[in-house]
Amino acid sequence: LPAAPVLAEQGGKSPVQVFILAGQSNMEGHGIIPIAGAKNDGKGSLEYIVKNPATAKHWAHLADASGNWAVRNDVWIWYLGRKGGLTAGYGANNRSVGPELEFGHVVGNAIDNQVLIIKCAWGGKDLYKDFRPPSAGGEVGSYYKQLIQNVADVLANLKTNFPDYDGGGFQIVGFGWHQGWNDGCSGPATAEYEKNMICFIKDLRKELKIKDLPVVIANSGFGGQGCSGRRLDICKAQAGAAAFSEFAGTAVCVDTRDFYRPLELSPGAQGYHWNNNAETYCLIGEAMGKAMIGLMKARQPKPK
Q: pTM higher than 0.90, yes or no?
């Protein structure tokens, strides 16, 4: 079995603790960073939540003493070729954020070793076809294949991608998933979602040769507690997949519905992108990170 993950016990950089974050556009991240040019005086933008007295304390760690976005060199990120120390701007573009930002802060705070986040996300992709795993039957999704290939390529070239890597090896210790909009647009895709997600987790673990790899799913809670119809069905399917008996203690579904912010409190108006609310994306990442650390602690060897 792979060695247990390192949780705030071992100093130094290696083995690098590797997390894979994947999904579609909401894992890409469309939370707006700057106040300037945003709707509603920038409410819900990253800059706003860091400066607003009501939220500044919670998010103070995202900026440094000079007011610039903090950069964590103990948490590296690779996102489809963009790479470096974790900071704001690793969303769909350099003016946006996704769950990766706060996820990285949470796991980075809990882990002494170097952390690496490999983010593989593409807009407008479904689990039904694009990410379709091998054991679901039918044609294997091209983005499932691309995800596996990207992870292999990054890990095979750690020193090239991150020159400060000390050569001491790595461990893949967790997988996070935030996706579901496109499947909720189709009856057949919605109906198959739970089965396909179970197959996806099984196949991913088989590909990576980590049978109990911790998996955190952030559900598709668009619209908040009022989401209904196929949107609610996708949320139920995601929870059902995480609760699959074979995954007991190794998978969890985070409910994101309470993180939804209405239009009047958001810097944008794309409902399928959480109204472009950076606070929402940060809360999703924070919840995913906390859930991940909980699963990792459960894998730690028990004292004899």
A: yes
